[in-house]
Design brief:
The protein is mostly helical. It is 72% helix and 0% strand. The chain has one domain: Tetracycline Repressor, domain 2. Helix 4 crosses helix 9 and helix 5 (71-83) packs across helix 6 (88-115). The protein is elongated, with a radius of gyration of 19 Å.
Length: 175
């Protein structure tokens, strides 16, 4: 357990300066999680120009998979998973700034694809469901293995991404 004295020493500030900005160690930890997850969630670019829908979705999926499996992302997941039972607000911060933000960005992207007549959704809430399902297909075994430190190769990632894109296009594509 880290003390406020240790945090102040590491930050090269006084304890009173720390308390002027943060009410507790929990507040500091929440700020660290929030600051740490934002760049990770922004780590996969949403394309603006689309010449080939399948290639665009494939590249997006590869970026997303790479983002969730980088060491910093895996470390953040592990810490938040370990601390969430004791500090549920940490889980909320991580979920909101990371997972929900990524899903929201993909939902908005899918809506923009619908507006461009590249995807078709029957209702306004279908893009949200489609993004949740799409990301869930990508969050599979490779991410779970990486979280647990299993280093076995996953030669099927490219095939899994291809299948996820195919399923999305088969269901929502404009043919």
């Amino acid at each position: 357990m880290t003390s406020m004295d240790a945090i102040a020493s590491r930050a090269a500030v006084s304890k009173s300066t720390l308390y002027a900005h943060f009410s507790s160690k929990r507040a500091i930890f929440g700020a660290v999680v929030s600051l740490g997850v934002s760049p990770l969630a922004a780590g996969f670019p949403i394309p603006e120009r689309i010449d080939d829908l399948r290639l665009c979705l494939n590249n997006l999926a590869h970026s997303y998979c790479a983002m969730i499996c980088v060491p910093d992302s895996l470390a953040m997941y592990r810490v938040v998973l370990a601390e969430s039972p004791k500090q549920p607000e940490i889980g909320t911060i991580f979920y909101t700034a990371g997972i929900a933000d990524a899903r929201g960005r993909i939902t908005d992207f899918f809506r923009s694809l619908s507006d461009r007549d590249l995807l078709y959704f029957k209702s306004r809430d279908e893009p949200e469901t489609a993004s949740e399902l799409f990301l869930s297909m990508l969050d599979g075994a490779q991410h779970q293995a990486a979280l647990f430190g299993v280093t076995a190769p996953h030669p099927t990632l490219a095939r899994k991404i291809e299948m996820a894109v195919d399923l999305l296009i088969c269901r929502f594509g404009r043919n």
